[in-house]
Specification:
This protein is mainly beta. The chain contains no helices and eleven strands. The strands form two sheets. Strands 2, 4, 5, 6, 9, 10 and 11 form a seven-stranded mixed beta sheet that branches. The protein has a four-stranded antiparallel beta sheet with strand order 1-3-8-7, with no helix packed on it.
Amino acid sequence: QVQLVESGGGLVQAGGSLRLSCAASGSIFSINAMGWYRQAPGKQRELVARITSGSTNYADSVKGRFTISRDISKNTGFLQMNSLKPEDTAVYYCNAHINLWDYWGQGTQVTVSS
C-alpha cells in the first residue's frame, strides 16, 4: 500500500511564498514522476507542475513563480511557490506514478489573500 501525504498549505498574503511537500510511503520500488495539481471552487482540476527523471514542466500561469523538485532518497516531492496571487487559491493535490500506478494525496488548501 502506497500513501501520499501533503503538507505546507495555508493562508498567505499576495506576493508571499509557501512550500508544499509530498511524502510517499509504503512499498515503493520506483517513482517515475511526481506532480502537483490544483482545483479551485467551481473549476476543474488542473496540472500545475510535473517532474520526471529527465524533465520538469509547468502550467503557463505559474512559470517563473513556482519550482517543482524532489528528494529521491526521501521519496518526497516539493513545490516552492513564490509571488503568490489570489488566483492561486485552490486545493493542491500531489500525484505520483509509483510502481506503475498513479496515486493521489488528500489535498492541502492554499489561500492567497489580496
